[in-house]
Amino acid sequence: MVFKPESALILVGHGSTVNPDSSAPTLDHAEELIRRKVFGEVHCAFWKEEPSLRQVLHMLDKDDVYIVPNFISEGYFTRTVIPRELNLDGPLTSLNGRTLKYCDPVGNHDRMTELLSKRASEVSQGVPLKQSSLLIVGHGTNLNDNSAFAAKREVEKLRELDMFGEVFNVYMEEPPLVSEWADFTKFPNVIVVPFFIADGLHSYQDIPVLLGIEEDTGLAASQRDVFRKNPYRLRDRTLFYASAIGTEPSFVDVIIDQVAAFDSVAR
Amino acid sequence: MRSLPETIAGWVHDGFSLLGQIRITSRPGGSFELRHREDVAVHGLEEFHGPSAARDLSFFDEARNYRPLKTAPNLRRGWSLIVETPEDLRLALDHFYPAMTALWRSQLEASLSSVPLRDTLDRQTGMYAASKRLQDEEGLQLVASACNSKTGCMKRMLWPFTKTVELTGFSRLERSADVLTLDSGEKEIPLLCHEACNILVAACRETVKKRERAAAATV
Question: How far is A214 from chain B (nearest CA, A)?
Answer without folding.
Answer: 22
